[in-house]
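One thing: could you explain this record?
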Amino acid sequence: MKYTTNYIPLTGNEAEVANQMERAERTEKEHASKHVDIESKRFFFDVKENHKGKYLRITELSGGRSCIVIPLGGITLFKERLGEIIEEAEKLVDAPASF
């Protein structure tokens, strides 16, 4: 069985609404931005806002690019958990290798 999709052009008004929605999705307001270089990596910390809300984006550049996005509604919990894991990681910085 073969399926086809017919293209139905948008009317002037529908096209304008679609364009407005697309622009709204791309529009971001930047509230704060910092970066740090560690070894061969660069990390960006950006607090932004779009039509979905405010968020923290952490981006890593090192040949490629990857990022995580944390809604600001969860930033306190994220900070607590990150602090806990950093404390554990700091114990390993000066510890001898275990393998």
